[in-house]
Specification:
The structure is a homodimer of 412-residue chains.
Chain A lengths: L2 E6 L7 H16 L3 E6 L5 H12 L5 H25 L4 E4 L6 E3 L8 E4 L2 H10 L2 E5 L2 E4 L4 E4 L4 H12 L4 E6 L20 E3 H9 L7 H10 L3 E5 L11 E4 L12 E5 L3 E9 L4 H11 L7 E5 L5 E8 L4 H10 L1 H4 L3 E5 L2 E7 L9 H11 L6 E5 L2 E7 L3 H11 L6
Parallel strand pairs in A: 1-2, 1-9, 2-6, 3-6, 9-11, 10-12
Antiparallel strand pairs in A: 4-5, 7-8, 11-12, 13-18, 14-16, 14-17, 15-16, 18-20, 19-20
Helix pairs in contact in A: 1-3, 2-3, 5-7, 6-7, 11-12
């Protein structure tokens, strides 16, 4: 029988009533002839409660014990969903990460899945005709036999990795939205749901700020070519509506030049004024930042007004901004900059589309349109299938709407 | 170094603040030179919440999934206590039942501990100098690799079994009372805390209604001769007060004839009137009840008024009363009784003391004292170190107080 992985997030399992609704979705797919593995998150709010207790108990924050406490949330949901399925006459059993096992690295709190042994789950399908209800977000580091977690949103990753391990036909990610949109509908009411989007585009969109899926889960889907369907868990289980299929580029018939517009407020700008313009200067700045584990994103270099020095602008994640400034000030003597100027009220707006590969001048069109609206571009980065501009955050909505219209993404 | 097991129940770990207080108790014993394993229950109220969800999710009640959901409560506490200890500079790690492992029978929901492998915990003591924080109440059925629970109050049992497995010098049970009393202080304000009580007496007291310890844990303590100390977790950790040591009879210097008075409202009386007085009649009544898994406790048989039949009175647990009546009525034809009369407003009052072995007439004294107060005795059972009387529940307090004074247990 074909296999299906279905994943339900925290809001979809927030109460026992909603868990029953999830069970109805599962039963529909069972009735349609699938062997089903369901991956569940903790009941919405539970993880925050558990994390709050951990923080209260210890400022030292041993990630091993953090994982023990937090992984309990998914354990509860998996048992309850198995029970709700049984109540509907569907055979089901729960699986914790250590039981399957889902083997991970030792990186407690943000472990990476190394391998999944699907044998037990597949035996459950063939021998017992039972649904596997799998606790998402968690695994085991086998050498130490300790519980690990994958970090926030890790249940998406659990689901896609499991789909690859049991060679599922598809991985359905049920969420509180009905798919992937051309951009954030809260900003652009004319945003459209995409029927299909390629792995590559989805990866860029997730990396550049679209919150519907975790970056890591899209990477895994792309690597293992797991067709991944984003859809709503709040639909009537008897009449499910359409969502967005993340799939191979070749499986998408009509391809737009630009598929979506993303934005991220999680960027802070740092400008170093009057840096000595000599070889090796970039290394003296970016090596210490890399050693401090700070990701530098956009970089722009312009000649200063005095022509013997240069001004260097780059962005870092907002969360690392204070730390980045401290690192740079520590190394001021080597770098020899005159002044450090920072800005956290900036936003990165990006346009993504595999069509950019074959169309020239796509970005240039955007620069002109933004300039026409009086929006100043602080920095630019481009790659094969996307470009990003850094602008003042006050212009976020205007910029996103402008680009959304510019590339013909507005709903008819 | 000598080893100590400390056990804290749900009210002692109800909040992160209280968990910190528990950590202080543990640190005191570490500073005193012990290697410590701590067994914890779920935060008070959590187990009820989880059980409520299970009941809501399914009326079918798969005990395997019940165990998955409910065992999560102890997992949370174990992680939080490990963190709180670390915060105080005490090395600690959590252990779930499946990690140790605590191997149990397959009786999900009320599994019995078969064996405990203490190797990992002992290695933690010697190699890492770390406290083992153990989730109580849970274990693993190894052939299926499924999580099991020991049933309500099972954490006491976990603690005593662990103490036996790691050959601890003592098992300290921290609870919301400061020890074992001569009787329930809510009924008899003159009740006294016992400094010591023998395993045998404690087993009878727990079986006969004293709620301070689970029967199974006392059985284990007696079987493995684990000195078990019942004490308060709400004392100032810096100045702990005395509790009650459950130990060998030989270690108790001054032995009273009667050590304690217990009572249990968990009894229901059934009287079958005019049963044919012929051989095999007892079997026709008690075999069907045994097959329905109903424990019959006190049995009394008297000749009926018509002299050719007999009246048979016995007690069953209140929870099984309705079921027992149904079983008996089903078998009415074989048993040939005329009438079934039941009473649930009865109570069993018991006096316990190893001194009864060497003193005659202890029970007789009680029958007279109760009769003098106008209390009618419905049934009597006696054994080597205790006797019990079944009376109308309206007389509970009067009977307990009367016996407590009669045997010289009142506080000076």
């Amino acid at each position: 029988m074909p296999r299906l992985v279905m994943k339900f997030g925290g809001t979809s399992v927030a109460t026992v009533d909603r868990i029953r609704n999830v069970a109805r979705h599962v039963k529909r797919e069972i009735d349609a002839g699938y062997d089903v593995a369901v991956v569940v998150s903790a009941m919405s709010g539970k993880t925050n409660e558990l994390v709050g207790w951990v923080r209260d108990a210890s400022s030292l924050y041993d990630a091993k014990e953090y994982d023990v406490v937090v992984a309990s949330g998914e354990q509860v949901t998996s048992g309850l969903l198995a029970l709700a399925l049984q109540e509907m006459g569907v055979k089901a059993r729960s699986w914790q990460g250590w039981q399957i096992p889902i083997m991970t690295s030792e990186g407690h709190g943000s472990a990476r899945i190394a391998a999944i042994d699907g044998t037990g789950i597949l035996q459950g399908f063939t021998q017992n005709k039972e649904v596997a209800v799998v606790s998402g977000f968690q695994g085991i580091h086998q050498p130490t036999q300790r519980i690990t977690t994958l970090g926030r949103g890790g249940s998406d990753t659990s689901a896609v990795a499991l789909a690859a391990a049991i060679q599922a036909e598809r991985c359905d990610i049920y969420t509180d939205v009905d798919g992937v949109y051309t951009t954030d509908p809260r900003i652009v009411p004319k945003a459209r749901r995409l029927d299909k989007v390629s792995y590559e585009e989805m990866l860029e969109m997730a990396s550049l700020g679209a919150k519907v899926l975790q970056v890591r889960s899209v990477e895994l889907a792309m690597m293992h070519r797991v067709p991944t369907y984003v859809r709503s868990s709040f639909d009537d289980p008897a009449e499910p509506k359409l969502g967005t299929l993340i799939c191979d580029e070749e499986d998408i018939m009509e391809q737009q030049v630009v598929t979506g517009i993303a934005y991220s407020r999680d960027e802070a700008q740092i400008t170093l004024r009057n840096v000595a313009d000599k070889p090796g200067i970039a290394a003296s700045i970016f090596v210490p930042l890399a050693e401090a584990n700070i990701n530098v994103d956009m970089i722009i270099q312009v000649v200063s007004d005095d022509t013997t020095t240069t001004d260097l602008t780059f962005t870092v994640p907002t969360a690392d901004y204070d730390r980045a400034c401290a690192v740079l000030n520590e190394h001021k003597a080597e770098i020899q900059f005159k002044d450090l100027q920072g800005a956290t009220d900036v936003v990165k707006v990006s346009a993504i589309g595999v069509g950019m590969r074959s169309h020239a001048g796509v970005a240039a069109k955007a620069f002109k349109a933004l300039a026409d609206k009086g929006i100043n571009i602080r920095a630019i980065t481009t790659s094969e299938i996307k470009f990003s501009v850094l602008i003042d955050s006050a212009y976020t909505e205007l910029a996103v709407r402008t680009l959304h219209s510019l590339y013909g993404l507005d709903q008819a």
